[in-house]
Amino acid sequence: MKITVSDVEHVARLARLQLTAAEKELFAGQMDAILGYVEKLKELDTDGISATSHAVPMENAFREDAVRPAIGAEKALANAPERAATFFKVPKVIE
């Protein structure tokens, strides 16, 4: 598949990019090379190979949810820079 400057202009218009003539030529060549590489990959025999989303096997590392007692306001606020009663005190951000 040959990528033309017209194709690059179309993609640039969709992406709201302004490209110089030199950039259009450069990107046309680069995009053509990328698609050429993809075409080369299509030549590989992938029969019998299952699709994967990761290169290495992944497993879920999350623990099961379990109900536990709360740690309490005093312990939660122990390292707070400022506090007001049982709340974190933060600077006002809305004027």
Describe the structure.
The chain is mostly helical. The protein has a domain at 5-41: Glu-tRNAGln amidotransferase C subunit, N-terminal domain (Histone, subunit A), CATH 1.10.20.60. It has 3 helices and 2 strands; from the N terminus they run αααββ. It has helices at residues 5-14, 21-41, 73-76, and strands at residues 83-84, 87-88. The protein has a two-stranded antiparallel ribbon with strand order 1-2. β1 and β2 form a beta hairpin. α1 crosses α2. The protein is flat and about 70 Å long. The termini are far apart.
CATH architecture of the domain at 5-41: Orthogonal Bundle
CATH topology of the domain at 5-41: Histone, subunit A
Over all CA atoms, what is the radius of gyration?
28 Å
Major sheet summary line:
2 strands, antiparallel
Low-pLDDT parts are none
Percentage of β-strand residues: under 5%
Class by SSE composition? mainly alpha
Give the C-level CATH assignment of the domain at 5-41: Mainly Alpha
- Elements, N to C (H/E): HHHEE
Termini Cα gap: 57 Å
How many strands?
A: 2
- In CATH terms, the superfamily of the domain at 5-41 is Glu-tRNAGln amidotransferase C subunit, N-terminal domain
Secondary structure blueprint with pairings:
Blueprint: H1 5-14, H2 21-41, H3 73-76, E1 83-84, E2 87-88
Helix pairs in contact: 1-2
